[in-house]
Amino acid sequence: MAKKAITLDDLRRHAVARSLFKPTSLPQAIRRLGFVQADPIRAPARAQDLTLRLRVRDYRVGDLERRYARLQIEEDCLVNYGFLPREHLRLMHPRQAERRWDGETERRAAAVLDFVRACGEAHPRQVQAEFDHGSTRNAWGGSSNAVTQLLDGMHYRGLLRVVRREQGLRVYAAAAHAPDPREPAEKAQALIDLVLAKYAPLPSRSLGQLCSHLGYGAPHLHAEIRQALSHTRERLPSVELDGQAWLWPEGEDPRARRWQFDEELRLLAPFDPIVWDRVRFERFWGWAYRFEAYTPAPKRKLGYYALPLLWRGQVLGWGNLSAMEGRLQAQIAYVAGRPPREAGHARALHAELARMAEFLGLAPP
Known about the structure:
The chain is an alpha+beta fold.
């Protein structure tokens, strides 16, 4: 008997169920995700913690930072900045930045690298005390400490690595990234497979966007990534719905019974894999989610750090959470203007807020 045609409902179920796998250990969750996007805003917690709490058993806010030095992971770049298994860095290093340093910057970097090597580990304040390079213009048009910007550039180019953080600030050591023997074309394909595994199923245009963002992590592989993208689109399983091609990894079937929704309600981080692709989000749930932390307050529609609310395979609304006097505060809003009438929603929301409070170390609302 012929298999039924793949529908948007199948793709939605596939996307949610494959991303919200059964909670596991922190190393296994990071390995399975392949990459965890980082963000410094805490509202009520950083994006990396909000992403991992749904996929790691008994996860508490800050666990990633506390355990980072003991894990085989790195802070580094892929499609954006975050955390990824150490072996993935071999696909991108030695990274060749698009903007080359001038001779003076190279000399300063060499001196800083010698200093860090001599120290073993170096806090930015130590480097600043040794080398006062003044200030410089940053990418946003403002003024930044020149040493801080140099350290960022050295980290990006693979000269330094982050060994841990102290009160949120990176502590550096000299890096020694193991080389990957594969040809550039093979590395490019492996990078595409990595982001596809994290964000699939995807509209073809969204996969193209992710490949463009890979220029951040591997700018020197731009041509190879573009060529590998064309090959990937040809070889992957796909379906066309309403004029849009959708793609997913080989060996997976969006119609399979293993992809099922559950009864648990979840508040998702703005950069959660389920939320990240705004094109897919709108196709799946029929409304446009926007991250408004950098939007002027009078123009915000959802709130400073709105967390999409997922229940039974539908994103019904969003929540803005905060802490007040040791207690979790929650403002929940719905696309329909009111909570759903289905039995179990109020109980599921109460349970999720209790889990969130425990994760944050707060009393529930």
